[in-house]
Fold each of these.
Amino acid sequence: MTHNNKAAPAPRLANNDQIELERLALRMALRPEVRQAREQARALLLADDVTKNPDGAAGLDRALDQWVMGQIASVINADPSRPRLFWSVDNTPRQWCGHVFPGAAVAIDNPDNVNRVAPLDGAWRYELKGQYGEFPTAQMNINVTLAADGQLRWGDAIATFTNRDIVADADGRFTVTFDKDPANGRPNHMQLVDGPLQLAIRDSHGDWRQQATVFDLQVVGGPDLLKQPGEGELATEIARGMQDFVKFWVGFKNTFWNNPSPNQVIGPFGRPREGGWGTQAGGRFHLADNQALVITTLSGGSDYTGFQISDPWMISPTPLHRTTSRNIAQCTPNADGTYTYVIALVDPGVANWIDTAGLHEGWFMLRWQNLGTDAVIEELVREVTLVDLEDLDQVLRDGTPVVTLEQRRAEILDRVASHRTRLA
C-alpha cells in the first residue's frame, strides 16, 4: 500500500502574513488588559438608545466583540515600515489553518467582499504586486485614505483605482507603485502624502465562486524600520484605544445618512469621499412579523450589485444559512429586467427574499459597482413599498420570480458551498 504524504496546498488567501496576524489577534483577545477594556467599552453600548429595542439588546455583545476584534486588528497592523495586508473586516467566522478566526466588523460590512488593509505613510515607497484569479471578482478596487485617527476608521480617499483602471498583463499580473511623486507616465501609480495612511483593497464577488485577487505588498525605499513593539506593548495600546474605537463605531450609526426614518430608501448616490468606486443607497427597516419592505431596482449594467442587511448596531448577520444578502448571481430578474427584493422576517416565496434573520429592526444597503456607461444613478431605485404580507401580491410586478421550498433549500446549500471556496 502506498501513502500519499504530500501536504494539501494552503488556501489562496492564507499567506504567512494573514495567518500570523490572525493568530496574534486571537492571542491579544485573550489578554487580561484587553478583556478588561472590553468590559469598560461595554458601558458605551449599554448607554445607547439601541439597547431599548429587543434586537439591539440581543445583539449588544456580538457587536461589541466584532468591534473589539476590529480594534485589535487596527493596532497589530499599524506599522507603515512593515505593512502587511490583513483580511480582517469580515464578520463571517472562518475555520482554517488550525484555528477559528471569528472575524471583525465596523459597519454594514459586505459578505460579498474580501477586504484587506495595510498601513502606509508617504515617508516610504511601496510596491504592490497582484494577480487576478482565474475566475476574477466583479470589481477589485484599491483605495488609499487618510488615517490620522488610526486604521479601520472612516477617512477621505486620496487615490483610487478599480480593476477598470489597472494595467495588467495577459496573465492578470500587475504592479502598483506608491510614493509621494506624481505618476509622470507610470501606469498603476498612486501618489501618497506624508502622515498615516490606510491602504484598503476590496474584492467584490458578484458570484461567491469568484476568486479574490492575490497580493504581495513590499517596502522598496524609505527611512529605517520603526521600533517593533512586543506583545505586551501591543496589548497595552489595544486596551488604551478601545474606548475611542468602540465609541467611533457606536456613534457612526447615529449620523449615517442622518439616521433616517425607517422603511424608506436614501439615495442612490455616488461615493466621492471614498474615491468614487461605487454607488450606494439604503436606509433602516422596521417591520412587524407580518410585514415586508418591497424594493425594485435596476442593475444599471453594473459588474457588481449587492443588497445586505444588518442589525441595529450595523453588524451584519452571518450570511451562509440565511439569505441576508444577495449579489447579482444570487438574484433573479423580473421579466422587464428590474430586480425586486422583499425584506421580511418570514419567507414570502419570492425569489429575491432578503431574510432579516429574525430582526424586526436594522439597516439595509444596496450597492452598484462598475456601473454601465449609460446608467442614470437617480433611476436605479424604481419602487419602495411597505406592505402586509397578505397584500404582497398586490404590489409585486406581474411575473415576479417565485421559488418553492425545495428551491430555497437548494439555494441555501449552494450559498454554503460557494462561500466555502473563499477558503480554498
Amino acid sequence: MTPKRKRTANNTPYPLSAARALALDAQGLATPPDGAVGPDSIYNTIERIGWLQIDTLQMVRRSQYLTLWSRLGKYDPEHLDGLLSGDAESGQGRRLFEYWRHAACMIPLDDYRYSLPTQRAYREGRTGWYRGWIDEPGNRDLVQVVLEHIRDHGASRSSDFERDGVKRGSWWDWKPAKRALEALYNQGDVMVASRVNFQRVYDLKERVLPEWVSRDEPTEEDATRWSLEKSIRRLGICDPRGVADYVKIKRTRAKPVIDEMIADGTIELVPVQQSSDATGSLAVHREDIVKLDAAADGALEPSHVTFLNPFDNLFWARDRDEQFWGFNQILEAYKREPDRIWGYYSLPILFRDRLVGRFDPKLERQTGVLRVKKLHLEPGVKPEDDMVASIAGSMRDFLAFHDASDLVIEHSNPSDFGTKLLAAM
C-alpha cells in the first residue's frame, strides 16, 4: 500500500525542485559514481534506465558509451561490447540484445520476450516499411536466400554480401540484401551477435539467444502496458502524455492504457508547482511517491555534475527539458552550419539539479586533443568558482575516457567561463 502523503490532505503542490530530483534519481543522475566500474555495474545501469540508445554520430564516443559515462564516469567500453556479444574478455556471458525500444537500443535479455509481439507484427506485415517491400517481386525469395546464407556460412555483416558477390537471379545487389537483413532482424529470425567497427554482425536467433532467456510471448496489450509501466519508473515523473515517448509508442495508442493505470492506482497524478503562477498534474508511479516526498523534504538532493549526450534517456519525454529545466535540448547536426546556434553535437552540462550550459566537442583522435568549438552557459547562469571547479573535474574525467590529453576551447560565452575552466583544469 502506498503511504499517505502529507500533501494529499491539503492538496499542497510539490515544488518543481522535487520533480527534478526524482527525474534525475530515476535516471541514475542524482549522485556521483562510487567505486570501480565493471560489467555488472554497466548492466545494472542499463537496467536502471531501461534501454540504451545506439547512434552512429561520433564527434566524441558514440551515444551508447556516453550515456553510461554520464552515470558511471570512466569505464572500459569493451565491457559494454562484451555484454552484447558474450565475449570471454568481458568475464560474463551475453546479457544484452539489440532491438527497437525508444530507437535502436541495447536491452537486457531479461526483457527479450516483450519484443516478441513487435517481431510478430513485422512477420505479419502489420508495421514498418516491411509491409510494402516484402510484397515486391523477388523480395520474399531474397529474404530466404539471405537467411540460408547466414545458416550455411555463419555470422555475417551486410558488407559480406557485397564482397562475396552472391547472387539470386539478376536482382541481387548489396542494397536489397541489406534490406533483407533488416527484415530478418525486425521479425526476429536473426539477431545482432556483435558489432565490428560499429557494423552489425548478424547470426541466427538460435545461435545468439541464450537458452535461459524466456520465449513466452505476451499479448500486445500486456507488452504495451509492461513497456509503459517500465517507462514511468525510468522517467520518475513527467506529463502523463510523455510516458509513451520513452518507449516510442504513439501517444494516442498509449492514452487508454495510461488512463487505465491511473484508474487502478498504478500511476498517480500529483500537483507540481511548475512556475510561480502555474500548477500542473504530473504522473508518478505509486512506488515512487515515497521518493517524491523525500525530494520535497530535501532528503533527495542531486549532487552529480556531468555532461549528457543529445540522445540521453533524460530527454526522451517530449518537452520535459523545457518544463523542468527551462532548457531547450536540440541536436543541430542535421542543420546547415550557418543555422546552428549551439554546435553540431552539443552536450548539455548537468550541475546538480540544473542544466547550466552546453558545449560542442570534437575529438581529434590522432593528436589526443579535445576541441571545444563552442562553450555556452545558459542565460542568467554565472561562472561561479565552485561550479567551474566541479565542471573541470568532470571535464578531466571526460578527457580520460577519450584518451585525450589536451583541451582547446575556441569560443566561450561568456568568455570568462572558458578562461576559468581552462585555469581549473
